[in-house]
């Protein structure tokens, strides 16, 4: 059997949503052959803490995001873009990849664009229900675009090549364990329900305040326990709230062991980022999704609408009735166990366990196509 090989550049970063799908896909590729991987990131994104721990090449370009409101940083954007294009050109000419893969975000833009101009096959992996601006702009230059859901295709108007529905890759290391074992790990009672709350890796101040206002009532009424990731910037404040000292309330700035947190939970309250939703699809438990209202192009709102339409979650918006609607959603799921269980089952229609493998297949197809020419 022929062992696949080749040089591949992955470009992305800024947030975990653009980084972790790349890492999952790289893992799938490495199970299929011997590939020389170079990852291109930005100067400030999360990739600078994560990528150096992996055994592949790493380069950085100067590009940063363009804010959708006036800021002095935007004045530098044209200069950053020009320099990043030149940096990308130099990286491409020196590394000579067979394929370039962009996983979204501003970092992937210059690299994928310059690769297309050099005739290097390109693939974009989009995570959201509504494609990001980078994906929409690069669609006319890319050979393949991998999307999470069929409805995403209608938002891609000018596309050069194929659009393939693959789902969103989830890290293979994420594995559920028995719930009793997980509850014990967190020091929680095994005979009491657990609500797991997290507002993304950075936490969400608005969600934290809502939980503060509702927690006492929920504990008294339903005897629930709270496993609560509040975010590093919010931890100091939340740790001084009275509720954080209640028995059965576990407050953390950041939770590394997400598989154990998911496993311990009976109900999950979270944002609606693409990676979170891909993981929740694997977990398959009743959820309340609270999309971040300031997300670019309202993509979290659109993500949550897709999941709610599939009957896999309740969508609660941060509006003037936010706390009351959140209370109603929690009440409903805790008092209707059959419906909550059905909601968990409905995630199965969204779960894409082979997403990373499907994207790896498309990358290998581009490599083979290039080798034939």
Question: Shape, please?
Answer: elongated
CATH top level class name of the largest domain = Alpha Beta
- Which percent range describes the beta-strand content? 15-25%
Helix content: 40-55%
Parts with pLDDT < 50 across at least 5 consecutive residues: none
Mean pLDDT: 91
The assigned CATH architecture of the largest domain is 3-Layer(aba) Sandwich
CATH superfamily membership of the largest domain: Glycogen Phosphorylase B
Give the topology.
Elements: E1 4-11, H1 16-30, E2 33-41, H2 47-50, E3 57-60, H3 77-95, E4 99-102, H4 108-117, E5 122-125, H5 133-138, E6 144-147, E7 162-165, H6 179-185, E8 194-198, H7 205-222, E9 225-229, H8 235-238, E10 249-252, H9 258-264, E11 267-270, H10 274-283, E12 287-289, H11 299-309, E13 314-315, H12 322-335, H13 337-346, H14 355-372
Helix pairs in contact: 1-14, 3-4, 6-9, 7-12
What does this protein look like?
This protein is of the alpha/beta class and 373 residues long. The chain folds into 2 domains: 4-170 and 353-372, 3-Layer(aba) Sandwich (Rossmann fold); 179-349, Rossmann fold (3-Layer(aba) Sandwich). The protein has 14 helices and 13 strands. It has helices at 16-30, 47-50, 77-95, 108-117, 133-138, 179-185, 205-222, 235-238, 258-264, 274-283, 299-309, 322-335, 337-346, 355-372; strands spanning 4-11, 33-41, 57-60, 99-102, 122-125, 144-147, 162-165, 194-198, 225-229, 249-252, 267-270, 287-289, 314-315. A 7-stranded parallel sheet has the order 3-2-1-4-5-6-7, sandwiched between helices. The longest helix has 19 residues, at 77-95. The model has no long low-confidence stretch (mean pLDDT 91).
